[in-house]
Amino acid sequence: MQATRLIVLRHGETTWNQDTRIQGHTDIDLNDTGRWQARQLAQALSDEPLAAVYASDLKRAHATGQAVAKAQGLHAQTEPALRERCFGALEGLTWAEIEARHPAHALAWRSRVPDWAPPGGGESLTVLRERILCALNALALRHPGEQIALVAHGGVLDIIYRAATGLDLQAPRSWLLKNAAINRVLWTPQSLTLVGWGDVAHLETSADGTALDEKTT
Domains of the chain, with CATH numbers? Predict the structure, then answer.
């Protein structure tokens, strides 16, 4: 079977990203910077041959995906399985608040305990990995020999990076998961291979050469 080329993207910025609040399944929309990032991302990918764009059904990812799709005359197809990890009762809290109110949970989280699940119905890393890789395989199988874009969330991209590089769930993270960065992997039924990660050249300056800080302040 032919390989499928995947462009995997994290949504643009939200206010909760700025505040370091845990979003999870909470449906937070893009802020002004996030919408600008989505437009820049769409322009950067406008010449890429995309057979389809699939996006998480959460607003921040779907709006980003729709911008990318629109630039190609496509429509972002909703895929709930690409949602962020569910963090249950911890959603809406900042890192500092979690450490102060739930120190045992904070330690388990930071230690990346694979079977630890956030209180209130959250997902463990093990469950998240199974969900994401099943979704990725199913979507890639639809497009042999083609290239597709998947628009999702930081936790989703973390799972994909680990799968593509052979790192286990507890390996310390040394790679970035930037909003609206361009990441590329190659899928075959036998393997997932990292091609490129963390390209943010399109976010450094706008098409007219205006510096990033002039666009986001």
Answer: 4-216 (3.40.50.1240)
Confidence band (pLDDT; 50, 70, 90) for 48? very high
| pLDDT at position 109 over 80 | yes
Q: Taking CA 131 as the corner, what is the angle to CA 188 and CA 18, rounded to the nearest 5 degrees?
A: 105
Asked whether 22 and 102 are in contact (CB, 8 A), the reply is: no
Separation between Cα atoms, residue 119 and residue 104, nearest integer Å = 11
- Residue 75 catalytic? no
Per the annotation, the verdict on 214 as an active-site residue is no
Q: Residue 138 phi/psi, 5° resolution?
A: -65, -40
Spatial contact of 169 and 114, defined as CB atoms under 8 Å apart: yes
CA atoms 77, 47, 179, 136: torsion sign: positive
Task: Spot the catalytic one: 25, 62, 79, 84.
Answer: 84
Each residue of 147-177: pLDDT tens digit?
A: 999 999 999 999 999 999 999 999 999 999 9
| H/E run at residue 70 | helix 59-70
